[in-house]
Design goal:
Bound molecules: uracil
Order of helices and strands: HHHHEHEHHEHHEHEEHHHHHEEHEEEHEE
CATH superfamily of the largest domain: Nucleoside phosphorylase/phosphoribosyltransferase catalytic domain
Number of helices: 17
CATH class of the largest domain: Alpha Beta
Structural class: alpha/beta
Oligomer: single chain
Low-confidence stretches: none
Number of strands: 13
Largest sheet: 4 strands, mixed
Shape: globular
CATH topology of the largest domain: Pyrimidine Nucleoside Phosphorylase, Chain A, domain 2
Strand order of the largest sheet: 1-4-5-13
Mean pLDDT: 96
């Protein structure tokens, strides 16, 4: 087999076979196929696309390029969730213990903040003593004892993705839907999940800005999963304003605790409950999403989801007393408010701009090696549709310096638009696509 022939085949729009895909992935990882040939193939994929079956072959070849976590000795069902990333998206912190309380085992391997989107590991690291990256034996123990565990992606998992992503990044091919699909799915399956629920975010603060783009990715994830005989649900959710009211590492842990006590903001709870309910259905605990929603609500009401969260904090080295003591108290040194210039209703909030404002504060980072701050962030005192008076506070910012706080306030100001009419508010669940 010659890589040149595979490039030409893809360039002319023909699907590659399982053997051909395996040849190029193993050849690239072993160094036998040079990056310039893989770059040419990536560009051919970008323009010609891939069938779902072909994307499945790529996913499987990528999984087999490195370590695969074998969690099959666990009772299961093993179901994980992946979000394409948003602002204020702390869903994982609530969903994992809630799904666990409903009988699902959740092997959650998450990432760190980058650009305008936050990272679950950075949020967990703001809990005193918490080890967000743990050894495999503790990860397994967590799954057995509390039904879920949180850790970072192991470097040995899907090395093909790391190599290929670096090439995609410099060849203008990151946005290819089949390449995104194989990249996301290979990591989740290599980490031991049997079934997956995807939160495909759509809107100004999302990777996919339009409904069409989001649906294309959702269909690709579900159909590729189907070709691999996996249960997959993709929920397209709106990301036109930050999710919940708090954005910041510890601030988001706090808001997650409120949700686990049944006292969370409506928008965040709507998305979290729906995604968790689909995990419960994908895991075969109950047959319908309505029954799964009832089960989730009862696990929140009886405190078992909160108990699971706190058990995980202890298991991963966190100090739960210190966590509860700091709740609603621990804040960065400086606090300032951004006030409304006019009276009316909050018409829109640009979540991308708000996400970017988190970077100078230290909520997120520009480069992977940058440090983040645990106690900085902001609280949205007003969200879409809420009435405001002139001079009333819209956002409260916490920062580690007055100057940064002022810079961030200037960044946030244009993100808020005040109108004279109450904007139409609708469900954040835009569409659901399933292979069950
Ligand atoms: N996230 C991933 O893991 N891979 C992509 O290609 C895009 C987003």
């Amino acid at each position: 087999m010659r890589m040149t022939d595979l490039i030409i085949k893809k360039r002319s729009g023909k699907p590659l076979s399982k053997g051909e895909i395996e040849f190029l992935v193993t050849g690239y990882v072993s160094g036998e196929i040079p990056p310039y040939q893989i770059s040419a193939w990536l560009m051919a994929v970008y323009f010609q696309g891939m069938s779902f079956e072909e994307t499945g072959y790529l996913t499987r070849a990528m999984i087999n390029s490195g370590k695969v976590f074998d969690l099959s000795s666990l009772a299961g069902p093993l179901v994980d969730k992946h979000s394409t990333g948003g602002v204020g998206d702390k869903v994982s912190l609530i969903l994992a213990p809630l799904a666990a309380a409903c009988g699902v085992q959740v092997p959650m391997m998450s990432g760190r903040a980058l650009g305008h989107t936050g990272g679950t590991l950075d949020k967990l690291d703001s809990i005193p003593g918490y080890q967000s990256v743990i050894p495999e034996d503790l990860f397994r123990r967590g799954l057995i004892e509390t039904g879920f565990a949180m850790t970072g992606q192991s470097k040995d998992v899907v090395p093909a993705d790391r190599l290929m992503y670096a090439l995609r990044d410099v060849t203008g091919t990151v946005e290819s839907v089949p390449l995104i699909t194989a990249s996301i799915m290979s990591k989740k399956f290599a980490e031991g999940a049997q079934s997956l629920v995807f939160d495909v975010k759509c809107g100004s603060g999302a990777f996919m800005k339009t409904a069409e783009e989001a649906e294309k990715l959702a269909v690709s994830l579900v159909e590729t999963g189907r070709s691999l005989d996996r249960k997959i649900v993709a929920v397209i959710t709106a990301m036109d304003e930050p999710l919940g009211r708090k954005v910041g590492n510890f601030l988001e842990v706090e808001e997650s605790l409120a949700c686990l006590r049944g006292d969370g903001p409506e928008d965040l709870m709507e998305v979290t409950l729906r995604l968790t309910a689909w995990m419960v259905v994908a895991g075969g605990i109950v047959p319908t999403v309505e029954e799964a929603l009832d089960l989730c609500r009862s696990r929140l009401a009886d405190g078992s989801a909160l108990d699971r969260f706190l058990a995980n904090v202890s298991l991963q080295g966190g100090d739960r007393e210190a966590l509860l003591e700091r709740e609603n108290k621990a804040r960065a040194a400086y606090s300032l408010e951004m006030k409304a210039d006019e009276e009316g209703y909050v018409e829109s909030i640009d979540s991308f701009a708000l996400g970017m404002a988190g970077i100078p504060l230290g909520v997120g980072r520009n480069k992977t090696e940058d440090a983040v701050e645990p106690l900085v962030g902001y609280e949205l005192l007003k969200k879409r549709g809420e009435p405001v008076k002139k001079g009333e506070s819209l956002v409260r910012i916490w920062s580690e310096s007055q100057e940064t706080g002022e810079t961030v306030r200037d960044m946030i100001r244009p993100a808020y638009r005040i109108g004279q009419k109450i904007p139409e508010l609708s469900s954040l669940i835009l569409k659901e696509i399933k292979a069950l």
